[in-house]
Amino acid sequence: MGRVTGRSCLVTGAAQGIGRAIAEALLDEGADVCFADINGEKVAQVAGANVDRAKQHGGKVTHARVDVTDRASVKAMIAHTVQVFGKLDVKFNNAGVNRPMNFLDVTEENWNFIMGVNGLGCMIGMQEAALQMIAQGTGGKIINTASIASRQGFDNVAPYCASKFAVVALTQSGARDLAKHNITVTGFAPGVVATEMWEQVDQDLMEIGAGGGSIAKISSLGLLQVGPESAGADPGPACYKQGGKYPTVTDADLVLGYLDPEFFLGGTMS
């Protein structure tokens, strides 16, 4: 029996990268998992590829297309998860975007796009997940993906940094408000991880002539892998290994207080 056997988990941004690695790690621990992403076709393929994995560990898998900036879409995703699994125990607000621009070139469109997905999307996801958990009366766990960029501003990704600072603030605010409902809220702030999103960001940085910028210099120190299945590579010693898997990386820090590893896996949920 896995550490989250019987738990119903929902992960956004699960068609690739960190989100997919999180969802697959949850399946390996026995959870029922809904893979959700704005790319409906891709997330359906990823979920389908994990059906046998879920069966092997006693869980179930489903998928949903979601636009995290649209409340109706988020409501529908949660309703689908509950319809299939019977409840919602854990929600990962992981969907995120980045579109690098030099600081003086940042436009309102660039700002609104990034803040919409990363900031507003996180808030809507937290709110709707919490409302479902409150209705169930059993508490729950909400985990938000922040970033190293939530700890420091970088010159070529200012809107992204602002959006991830917002994720930290939402995590802290939500934790204070939802504690009375036995809902715990936390987050994690990974560094530069080798994902499809970072490949695009790296290309964008080069195109705007920011190859020597501060965020690019960080990536030059080496990319961390999210997991052997998702990244297609050996994660190496830079990753935190647990039970033969690589669910997180050593430069990721917790956002907000509850510093018990079991928190992420639901071991303390009543």
What does this structure look like?
The structure is a single chain. This protein has 10 helices and 11 strands. The chain has helices at residues 17-28, 40-49, 51-56, 71-85, 108-136, 158-178, 196-207, 214-220, 228-231, 262-265; strands at 8-12, 32-37, 61-65, 90-93, 140-145, 183-189, 193-194, 224-225, 239-242, 245-249, 253-255. Strands 3-2-1-4-5-6-11 form a 7-stranded mixed sheet, sandwiched between helices. Strands 7-8 form a two-stranded parallel ribbon. Strands 9-10 form a two-stranded antiparallel sheet. β9 (239-242) and β10 form a beta hairpin.
Structural class: alpha/beta
Mean pLDDT over the residues: 81
Q: Helix and strand string, N-terminal first?
A: EHEHHEHEHEHEEHHEHEEEH
> Roughly how many Å apart are the termini?
18 Å
Shape verdict: globular
Q: Percent of residues in beta strands?
A: 15-25%
- Order of strands, main sheet, comes to 3-2-1-4-5-6-11
What does the main sheet amount to? Answer: 7 strands, mixed
- The number of helical segments is 10
Q: Which percent bin holds the helix content? A: 40-55%
Q: Please state the CA-atom Rg, rounded to the nearest Å.
A: 18 Å
The total count of strands amounts to 11
* Regions with little confidence, pLDDT below 50 for 5+ residues: 213-252, 256-270
In terms of topology, how is this protein built?
Elements: E1 8-12, H1 17-28, E2 32-37, H2 40-49, H3 51-56, E3 61-65, H4 71-85, E4 90-93, H5 108-136, E5 140-145, H6 158-178, E6 183-189, E7 193-194, H7 196-207, H8 214-220, E8 224-225, H9 228-231, E9 239-242, E10 245-249, E11 253-255, H10 262-265
Helix pairs in contact: 4-5, 5-6
